[in-house]
Amino acid sequence: AQTVTQSQPEMSVQEAETVTLSCTYDTSESNYYLFWYKQPPSRQMILVIRQEAYKQQNATENRFSVNFQKAAKSFSLKISDSQLGDTAMYFCAFMIQGGSEKLVFGKGTKLTVNP
Amino acid sequence: NAGVMQNPRHLVRRRGQEARLRCSPMKGHSHVYWYRQLPEEGLKFMVYLQKENIIDESGMPKERFSAEFPKEGPSILRIQQVVRGDSAAYFCASSPEATGALRAQYFGPGTRLLVL
Question: For chain B, which residues score pLDDT lower than 70?
Answer without folding.
Answer: 1, 98-102
